[in-house]
């Protein structure tokens, strides 16, 4: 790895030294020097903070180093994106162009990852038959659980566990399951919502902060997709089942050495929401 300071451009501002948390850049005899390249985690902060483009880094693509366009940074626009984004569960029967999906994922790669690991990968499923098969399998598991829960042994067990918060949270689904089954028979997909695209955000199995990294990327995906006229929805049940469901993992081509941190569907919304939603005030403790 070669990290070099271009002396004819450098003005000795020391911003690279200030910014480098790894200790690669240090002040030596009054000038900044890359004295410990082996500690570099490729965060590219030194390149980004240098006002004179005086740093060359062999492991970073200099072609991606663009000027920050501060005039485009608008707080109200970002707030509008965040406030008006909805979880979409009704989609138009239209495919999403591959270029649009690639545009969303290209943005997602700029999401922060712990220690700049950049270890995320994405599985994009656009085969409607596979998406439907995955939805059917997950829904069938839910129906099976419902049948057991409403049986005599199931009622007895759940009665003993009624104070368990996780069990209690599932009751609202169970209470309406007859309706869900009826609607499913009529063609409604309650799991993947007949969406044309399913995206799985993956990280190495057992990696530190893997799920955190996946969710940060997932948030950027859903917000940016919203600006492109696309709708998305997190599918928590699928994420949970992909932790151990070997057949489901095989169907969706999840490698053995990867874990799925986020599952979400994407497509063009069947209709638009005219108003922002109501939300609780934040619970804040000031210290």
TrEMBL record:
Gene3D superfamilies: 3.30.70.20, NADH Oxidase. The chain crosses the membrane at residues 221-242. Keywords: Iron, Iron-sulfur, Membrane, Metal-binding, Oxidoreductase, Transmembrane, Transmembrane helix. Belongs to the nitroreductase family. GO terms for molecular function: iron-sulfur cluster binding; metal ion binding; oxidoreductase activity. Residues 30-60 form the 4Fe-4S ferredoxin-type domain. It holds the Pfam family Fer4_9. This is Nitroreductase. CDD domains: nitroreductase_FeS-like. InterPro entries: 4Fe4S_Fe-S-bd, 4Fe4S_Fe_S_CS, Nitroreductase, Nitroreductase-like.
């Amino acid at each position: 790895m070669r990290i070099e300071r271009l002396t004819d451009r450098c003005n000795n501002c020391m911003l690279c030294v200030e910014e480098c948390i790894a200790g690669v850049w240090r002040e030596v005899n009054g000038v900044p020097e890359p004295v410990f390249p082996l500690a570099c985690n490729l965060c590219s902060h030194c390149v980004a903070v240098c006002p004179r483009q005086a740093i060359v880094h062999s492991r970073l693509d200099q072609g991606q180093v663009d000027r920050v366009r501060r005039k485009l940074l608008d707080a109200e626009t970002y707030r509008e994106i965040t406030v008006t984004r909805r979880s979409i569960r009704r989609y138009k029967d239209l495919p999403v162009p591959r270029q649009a999906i690639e545009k969303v994922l290209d943005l997602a790669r700029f999401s922060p990852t712990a220690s700049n690991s950049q270890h995320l990968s994405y599985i994009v499923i656009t085969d409607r038959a596979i998406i439907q098969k995955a939805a059917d399998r997950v829904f069938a598991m839910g129906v099976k659980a419902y049948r057991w829960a409403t049986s005599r042994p199931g009622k007895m067990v759940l009665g003993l566990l009624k104070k368990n918060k996780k069990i209690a949270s599932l009751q609202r689904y169970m209470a309406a399951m007859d309706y869900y089954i009826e609607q499913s028979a009529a063609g409604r997909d309650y799991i993947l919502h007949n969406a044309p695209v399913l995206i799985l955000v993956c990280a190495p199995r057992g990696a530190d902060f893997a799920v955190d990294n996946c969710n940060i990327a997932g948030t950027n995906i859903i917000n940016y997709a919203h600006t492109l006229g696309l709708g998305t929805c997190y599918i928590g049940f699928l994420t949970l089942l992909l932790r151990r469901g070997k057949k489901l993992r095989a169907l969706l081509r999840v490698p053995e050495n990867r874990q799925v941190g986020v599952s979400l569907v994407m497509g063009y919304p069947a209709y638009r929401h005219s108003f922002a939603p109501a939300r609780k005030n934040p619970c804040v403790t000031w210290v």
